[in-house]
Structures are given as structure tokens and as C-alpha cells.
Specification:
By secondary structure, the protein is α+β, with helices and mostly antiparallel strands. Strand 12 and strand 13 form a beta hairpin. Helix 2 runs antiparallel to helix 4, helix 4 crosses helix 5 and helix 6 crosses helix 9. The radius of gyration is 20 Å and the shape is elongated. It starts with a strand and ends with a helix. This is Transcriptional regulator. One of its GO terms (cellular component) is cytosol.
Length: 249
Amino acid sequence: MCAYLVRGPGGPRGEPIVRAEEERISLALPYFDGLSEAGTGQLMAGALLQRFPAQAELIRQGDRPAFLHVVVEGRVEVFTRYRDRETTVDVLDAGESFILAAVFLDSAYLKSARALTPVRLLLVPADAVRAVFRQDPAFAEKCAADLARGYRRLVKEVSNLKLRSSMERLANWLLHQVRRDAGSRHFTIPFDKKTLAAKLGIAPEVLSRNFAALAEHGVKVSGKLVEVTDLARLEAFARPEAVIDDPGY
């Protein structure tokens, strides 16, 4: 069964409560779909479903993993630090996990993570993940696919950062948001602009200038509200490439 533990800014509070509903939610996550009953039971035996407030530090770069974290609700920022600087590596939504490579190798985290919004996470013990990987072919296949997707996403990110100007990166990110919102040309940036700038490898002041410059390419911005007034002009400027921009490629 899955224990449910509420965690606040000062640490855990209350006692773990076993809830069938929480277990049902956990078992509906992609990681558990198609697993053997024995494998599922082993993963869930020590699992915790926990809530964290916005800005809570979830894992720390350099620490060794005790759990595989799966996002059930909310949004998580994965970032890295060097001396007094830090940059966003990725932003994760419900159904995504972090950080499987560190768990699988039982090695130190190369990245940190914090909650961008209030989040609910499923914490699966790292030793159980490694054990079930060896025993359950369905789970091993899911883990291998997750690692492969992570590698391909990294290659796309490197290509995006090294081959495009900062303005082209922003334009293609805007097109991605339009596609993600089923073609809607009005959307809200889902996190603060500082996080967006770091994710795109752009200084915040450059991001502001790029938003202003994209006005002539069919983009109108007011705070975090974005309107794509001319999709064809934006696409003509951004020139998206499937090998970089298509999540399914």
C-alpha cells in the first residue's frame, strides 16, 4: 500500500495514512501500467505520496538518491548550480519523473529540483526500483524507454542551444506552447520569466528584448499573457525542425 504524508515548509507533519484512493492514483501513473502484480507490490511497499509547497527543495545536487520521484500533480523545476550561479535544466509536469539515471546507477544527483507550484509526488524507494528493474521485463522496458527519451531530449536541447540564436529559441518555444495548447494562440507562460530565460539559456534582460522584437513576427506579450497574432509569420521566422522541436520525433 502507499502511505500518504503531508509535508510542509518545516518538514513532515502528521502520521502516514494508508488510503486506497491514493494507491489508485499512483497505480494509474505510466510507470505502473502493465507491471506484474509482484513488481507493483514491491515498488509500492515502501512508496510515499507526499505534498510539498511551492519553492520547496526536493532533491539536491551531489546527494545520493533514496527515491525515484514521480510528479502526480503540479510542476517541478530541475536545475543545476555552479558556485553562485544556477540555471534551469528542465520543467516537469504530471506523469514525469526525476532522476532515473541517478537512481539506476546509485550515483549522486547531477541536478537539483524544486517545486514551482504546490506539488504532489510519488516517492518510490530507489532500491526497489533497481530490484524490480532486474525482475520485471515490463518495468525494465519502461525505464529503458524513459532513459532513451531523456537522451534524445538532451540532444535536442544541445542542438537548440548551440545552433539557434536566443530569439529563434524563444520563437520555437512559443510555437511549442501553441501546439501544446491544441492550437490556441492565447496562452499564459506557465512559470515566471526568469525560469523561462534560464530554460532557454537567455539572460532575463535579453528575453525581454526578444519578446519586444518578436512583435514584428506576430507575437504580442503583456506580462505573462501571450497572443500569437500571426502564426504564419512566427513560423516563417522560427523555421521549426522536427529533429529538434517535435516531442514525438
